[in-house]
Every structure is written in structure tokens, then in C-alpha cells.
Amino acid sequence: MRSLVLTGLSFMLTASVIGNAYYQKKQFYPSVVYITKSNPSMAVMYVQALVFVVLMGKMLRALFFGQLRAAEMEHLIERSWYAVTETCLAFTVFRDDFSPRFVALFTLLLFLKCFHWLAEDRIDYMERSPAISWKFHFRALSLMFVLGLLDILFVRHAFYSTMSKGPSVQLVFGFEYEILLTVVVMTFIKYLLHAIDLQSQNPWDNKAVYLLYSELAMGFIRVILYVAFVFIMIKVHTFPLFAIRPMYLTVRAFQKAAQDVILSRRAIRNMNTLYPDATPEELSSGDNVCIICREEMTSGCKKLPCGHIFHTSCLRSWFQRQQTCPTCRLEVLRMPRPQQQQQQQQQQPQQQQAAQPQQAPNQNGQAGVEQMQNPFQNMPGMFGGMPFQWNGAGAAVPPPPPYMWQPPPQQQQQPQQQTPGAAGQAPTPASSSSSSPTSAAATPTTSQQANTQTGGTASAASTSMPSTQMPPFPGFPPFLPGMMPPVFSYAGFPSPPPSMAGLSDEELRVMEGVERSNIEARIQWLRDIQALLDGAMVLINQYNSVASQINSRHDGTSAPQVVPISTSPSSPHQQQQQASSSTTQVNWWPAGSGARPKYSSTISSTHVTNSSKERSGSLSSPSEKHESSDNVEKEETKGATGSSPKEAEIPKWSDPREEEHTDEMHEVRKRRLQHFSQHHLDSNSSNLDSSNSDKNNSESEEKH
Amino acid sequence: MAGSALKRLMAEYKQLTLNPPEGIIAGPVDEENFFEWEALIMGPQDTCFEGGVFPARLTFPSDYPLSPPKMKFTCEIFHPNIYADGRVCISILHAPGDDPMGYETSAERWSPVQSVEKILLSVVSMLSEPNDESAANVDAAKTWRDDRKGFEEIARVTVRKSLGL
What residues sit in the active site (chain B) (predicted)? Predict the structure, then answer.
């Protein structure tokens, strides 16, 4: 309404000015001269020209766009203000050749710019409009054609005028129109992409990619144009102040486009190569609506490392903007390696789960092996029986480790890397790897756990294990002949801990209460050990010979055992090393390590038995020690309230080695280990002797 | 194929019509253009905006779920997080790239997980708990902080105005 009034006013003014001139001069030529000479008249004429331009703009707008949408209008006004201020800045640079023609040219430029912007907006609108009419296509195409043609003409004109007349304001126009030309080209590319997209029923995945790349290319061209323009302007005139803002924006846009391209390429490549396709089960379970497009996911879905599932196409278009998980904002590019691992986890969850627990026991085993080696060097005979029995256990346990672990390449390295660490830690008893789940404060339980863990290894065979360690009772009715051959060879020897199993049980109960009492019990143990060692040393030679026997046997009998060994996390190479290194002393290492992985699998069950045993609180177990394995079994079933007999037995058999390294955290254990390795038994034990010594013998035996 | 943005907006419209959240009405201005929505937000109870019905306009970009929409109240409303011209300034309406206030972490920015419903619910909670740390309307923030009584009085006036009283 207001514009209508203004237009009418302008027309009236013009008419009055012209009428006045004609009334005064009566002729055409003098009246024209009169108007041009009169400043007020000229002002009116300029205003009228502006009104004409606006009217023409409106006409063209109606022709090419129809009604403008509110957003387009807002956009246009916003940009126009910037353009006007920049034009005014440009005037200051070219104030020398300031003329009506110059102003007219700038007005025309502004005018055309507006149409470029409108064309851009209109093409963008294509994407969101539900239906595109033929009229729209016709308008868009003709508009782009006209704009492109005009741009080319102006660029041509600017070029030739600069060539013929030297640099002038035409330079500015040339560059401005070139920039506008890139806008037209970009708009046309967008139009083409949208038009192709509209033809197809399904979303066109690659459209965004093409858009991104064309934007990058256009951004690059624009940056070059602006840099060249500024450079030339500085040489010819002065610094083009009015070009700073658009140049800055262009450079930033280009930088963003480049960054987008790089990051999105990386993210999309990750998506295509690393992230697994969502399986039908995952899609069918629970909410299967893609959070990006809110549509059901049936196929073509990817699962991110964080576990969220999206359409591949949705994810791709999101990655072109942000390289994060839309749901939890996990930065997918931040973790290129972990990603792979996680992916593997997802792909082979079972393998991983198997591997994870295995690694820990492996460390344990490693540490244990190392720890044991020291004592062994001193007194190989003492412990000779134990590992061997483990061996036997491994053979006896019918099912090989449930998980046939084929280490993925990365993980294969991990155990190997860990090995040196574990080995390094091993000599110092407090290796963190072997720290058992329970806290150090609850040492009794930990030691029990150690026992039970080792017992768990032997699982089925564990019943026999305790009895094998009781030379005094050579009966061993329950033993399968196949798995126990070494036992028989040992049976004759007076040697070591006759009642390990029973004692461990009892001792643990004793130590249950307070930490101090626990320590005291351990001290007692140590003293017993000392005494026992004295005796044991005598037998060492004998044992050595036995050990060699075992080795030979082991080689023969343990052929089947080797299979489970290879499935254990410790790499075959490692095992070979161990085997070779240990051949000089004792050959059972590989077998022992092979059996170890089972600790992990049985830990949970042994936990139960632990607690149940503790609850049972049958402290009066000294009798147990001297009982045959059968009796032991019975008693344990008695004690264990809810657990199965098998479970209950497990803890009974206490393996000194395991115990040692689980209890390493405890000082006393440390000392004990030191004293084993250093052979300074006397000094150590004398320190510890202060405590009472009730069940010295049995305890010491258990230790072994 | 009219674009995933349109599909999603239609889906959200359907969702909002079937299960309208309490105190919120929203829908496209006209069925031809799903990228312009009108929303009516009721002032949350037990706040100074209680009882008011505030109209707002949502403008969606063509790549909608990937970029946030813009929201603007079309009525007069005096609130620390609403510009004087009615534009709403909440973090989930900001694309992760730009940070007009320079304080938001990208975690609270726009993501396709957000929806019209969530935006409007955030606005409702914003009405009840203005964030004067990052004020869009500094006057309002100052009034809210220093002169709570005055703020509530102004709010009541806007409530009355919004109801046409």
C-alpha cells in the first residue's frame, strides 16, 4: 500500500516536472535541457528511474517467481542491505569516476544480484516442495538462462572495456559478474541434481555427495576469483574494502566445504568398510525406527560402534555434516583404531568374550609360571608333581576349552605384548595381573579363590587332584588310570604336602575372620614351610629323576592335551618358548598354561563354592587332610550348602602356585615367595615365628 | 520422491496429531508447505507464564533432520532466552557448527534425534526455567535476576495479551 502511494507520488512528481518544463519551454529539446539543468528536476527524475527499476523488478519477479515466500523475502532484504553497504563502500573507491551511469551500473548489478539470490532460494525450495509443477521448471530454467546470459555479456563487456581502455571500474563489475556466474552455475547444478532426484522414487543417496563436491569446486573457483580480484585491485587502485566481507565469507565457505568433504569422506569410508551391517535380528528386535528419517528400518542399515543403528543413506547424509553418532554423539572419527576393534567385537562377540577373560588368566598363568620358576630352580622336585598333575588334569578334562579361540590378528599380538609385562612383573610377587577380584582386605577369600580357581581348572579331574597330593594314601580308587600315571610314580615318595586339600579348607576358615588373624595363620604356614623345605631338599634329587621320567611320559601322553593348549590365548610361539626354556628344568609348563584358561571359565562357580564353604564353617577339618579323596568329596558336599558336590570339591584342592600369585598382594605372601626364590628360608621364617603354631604341618603342606 | 525432510515432517506431524503432548499444539501452516509450522504453547503451570497461550512459528530447512529448524514466537513475550523479535534461543536449536553464544557444548546442540515435539517441550521447560547465563534478551535476563516481581508482572501482562484480554 505504502509502496503504491510512493509510486504514485513519484509518477505525479515526474509528470509535474515534465509538464512544468514543457509548459515553460514549449518545445521538446529546450525542455529536456531545462530538466537536466535543474537539480530538483533531475532528482525527481532519478527517483522516477529508481521507481521504474523497482517496478521492473516486481514485474520480472512476478514473471519468474510468482509470489515470493516469506523466507525468500526475508533473505532477500537481509542480503540487500549488505549489498547496498558494500556498494557504497565501492563508491568511495571509485569516487573519481562517480557518475549517473556508474550509479546506474551498480544499481543494475544489485538488481541482478537480487535475482541470483532469489533463484538460489527457489532452487533450494525444490527440495522441500511436495510437488513441482512444469511451470516451476520452465521458470527456473528460463531465469537461469537469462541470468547466465546477462552475466556472460557483462563479463565480456567488462573484459573488453578493460582491455581497450585500461583498468577502470569495469574491473569491479567484471569480477562481480563472474562471481554471479558461478552462482548461476551452482544453482543450475543444484537444479539438475534436484530434478534427477525428483524423477526417482527412492532417495538418491549420492546427491548430497555431488552437491558437496560441486560446492567445493565452486568455492575454490570463487576463492581464486576473489584473491585475484583483491590482488589486481591493490595493484591498480587501492585495497578493495567492499570485497572483504564477501571474500571472507567465500574463503570460510570453501574451507568448510573442504573440511566437510574430507571428514565426511573419512566417516563414510569408515561406515562402508568398518561398521557392520545391521543384522535382521538386530533390526527386528525392539525399536527399529531410524531416528534420522523416522521410518522403519528393513534393510540397508549400518550399526555404529556405539551400537546405534541407522539407515545407511541417512547416516551418510548426516556424516556430511557431523561425524558423530546422532543419538549419543560418539565421535566416530576420534577413534579409528578402537573402532575397528569394536567392530570386531561386534562381529565376533563370542570370540572376544572368550578372549577377554582368557587374557587375564593368561597373564595370571604367565606370572605364575615365572614365579614358579624361581622356586623350581631351587627345588624342582618339590613342585614337580604339581604341574604335572595339572597336565594330567588338562588331559582328563574331557571337553577341550569350549572356545576354540582363533585370535584375530590384532589380538594375537596383545597376549604377546602382555607377556613381557607379566614376565617382568612375575618375579615381584605383587603383579597386578594376578590380583584376584576380591580386595586385599579379604585375603582369606582370595587365597581360597586361588585354590578354587586352580581346582576349577581341573574341574572333573579335580576330585583326583587332592588325593594325588597325598602320598600317604596310595590307594586312589577314584583315579582313572589314564590320567594318573604320574601319580603312581609319585606315590612312593614320602615327600610333600600330604594334606594340602584339607588344610587349605580349614586354614581358610581360620583366616576368615579378621585380617590380622589371617596374617598370623599365614605366618604359621611359613614356619611350617620352612620345616618342610628342610625335609624336602633332601628329596630333591630323587624328585629330579622323577621329573625327567614325567617329562618323557608327558611327551607321550599329553599329545591330546596340546590341542587345548593351542587354543589358549598365549600364542603358540610363546608356548614354544616356554616349553623350550623349561625343558631343562621341568617340561610341564606348556601343559600348565594350556590348562589355565579354564580358570576363568570356572571362576564364577568357584566363587560360589568359596562362599558356601565359608558359610559352612566346618573348622574342624584337620581330619580331612588325612582322608582319601573320596572322603574329602563327601565332607565338602556336606559343607557346601547349596552347591553341587562337584563344585564343592573344587576349592578343596588348593594349588600352591595359584595361591601364591593370587595372594601376592599380601605381604606375607611376598615374603614367602622371596624366601622361596632366595632360599633364605630361615631368616624369613624366624621373623614370622612369633605367631602361634597349631597346625603348622598341615598348613605348610598346603602351601606347597 | 519429495525428499526425506518432507517425509519426516509428515511423520512428525502424524505423531503429534495422534499423541499430542500436553500443552502443545503444532502443525503445518498449510498442507501445501510442510516446512512452515505453527505451534501453540501453553504457559507451564505454576510459573508466571501460566495460563498464557503463545503462538510460535517454526521454519524448517530443506535438509530438516540434519539441520535444526528456526523457531520464533509471533506474540510478544518477555523472556531471557527469547530475542525481542521473538526468536527462540535454545541450544538444541543450534547446529553444532555455529555457536552464537559461545558457551554451548556440541552435546547439547541439534541432532537428528531431536524432533518438533522435543523442541517444543524444551521451550516449555525454558519458559518455566529461564537460563539467564546466556541471555538472548538481556533486559529480560536482568529483570528476571534482579527484579523477579517485576518480571512476573511483565509476564502476566504478556499472558493476558496472548489471550487477547
Answer: 89
